[in-house]
Amino acid sequence: MKLLVLISLVYLLGSTEALKVLVVFPYPVKSLSILGTGAVRHLLNAGHEVTYITVFPLKNMPTKTFRQIDISTNLELLKKDESMTMGFVLEHKLEKNDALQIQNFALEGAKATFQHESVKKLLQDPNERFDAVITDLIESEVFAGLAVLYDCPMIWLYSMGAHWQVLRMIDRGTNPAYDPDYLSPAMTPLSFLERVDELWARVKWQFLKTFITQPEERKIYEQTIGPLVAKRGRTLPDYEEVIFNASLIFGNEHDAVRDRPSTPQNFKYIGGFHVEEPVKPLPKDFQDLIDNSKHGVIYFSMGSFLKSNSLPKPLIAELLKMFGELKQTVIWKFESDLPDVPKNVHIVQWAPQPSILAHPNVRMFISHGGLLSSIEAIHFGMPTIGVPVFFDQFTNVNKAVENGYALRVPLSHNLPKDLKVAIDTMLKDDTFPKKAKELSSIYHDRLSKPGVELAHWVEHVVRTRGAPHLRSPAWRVPLYQRLYLDLIALVLAIVSLFFYIVSSLFKKTPKKNDQKKRN
Ligand SMILES: *[C@@H]1O[C@H](CO)[C@@H](O)[C@H](O)[C@H]1NC(C)=O
Prior knowledge:
By secondary structure, this protein is of the alpha/beta class. It has 20 helices and 13 strands. The strands form two sheets. The chain has a seven-stranded parallel beta sheet, sandwiched between helices. The chain has a six-stranded parallel beta sheet with strand order 10-9-8-11-12-13, sandwiched between helices.
């Protein structure tokens, strides 16, 4: 009997500690969903219950502690947009994405998610309760409404580093004079024109946000969350208050990245948490292929989002020919079968990237410079050739080049020739692998693994009811106070009053003299 009581007590204590967490990754981008999956995995490992709203549903998951809501219909959002392919970028030579395009992408993702029948069903259930909401943050804050609905802390998981769009939500935007936008290829220190350009980009972004996308997001918040909060007997706080009320933001970056702006205590770097450890063993065919490559392996992948087969056929043929002339084995991740593939080139539609990068016989990684690939390159200390296409890839590759373990090659019709030069340079010069290993050791030199940290901070935020002690004091101070515009206005008022009095005195004195003279 005593034992039974003890067992049930232990069980009770254990179960009260398990949190119910809602994890929302609403965007149809595979690499973002890899981050979502990482968060889910670490939360489940820490013993919590997870409800996961996802575009890419997971297989073979535990049924007791995990439930997923499939919103794969959001994939439609990308089908409309042909500008998101390599072929398009090649022809139009884009160096920068349009700020409105990205804000709209985030807005459309939010709209589609809140209108999804399965999501509606979840939100409308009056008995549903969560201890924390974790949501992917692109450029729409409207998901903060979920934390209002469940009356729990809001945690964002940001796929990039400490950018100003994110910091402004919990602290203040950084200074554009030394912190270029993530869409900007500019590197610090900035020239005069670059500084002007950066300032202009922010003014433009904020203008679009305030007058175009934010009013739409407010509408979603008031129309979708409003009635549900009312049903739970509470009044809906103002949207503006809600979006600046996050308890914590996770940043997907790490200490081996230089030139990061200072961040408040509730911004936590957990870059690398998506990499599963220990690394899974390679499938036998890959293992044999890489083991038996006498001159090493070059791994070429443009990520999961970019479709390589949107490249022109002749360019693909030239690339194959160039790879064919190398002594190394080339593993090229490509979505479809190709004709006339040289013997040393292996086209694969799927590749276990982390396990490949972990193999000592792999000599370099040719990559689009997406953030996950960039992190994995550092995690495994792999020299890289970056071929950035869009979004933050230019910034990532530029930083990698500056850090000395990467070369940058532009996406152009001259890609095969340029790539050949870069490959030859990299094979000859051993400073690239040395630098990569050095950064990798900085990256791994931390107190705890990033996944452990993720679970810890989620628990901390819930235990301390939103962790108000971590918040920055700057977040409560409006811009005009921060810039002392009120003081400047006061000084200007006093100075002009002074001049007014003095000038009116002077006006009067000559009059008196005049009168005296006349007298
Ligand atoms: C802000 O967040 C805290 C902590 O989660 C919460 O207690 C509070 O109700 C939130 N305020 C608003 C206006 O949502």
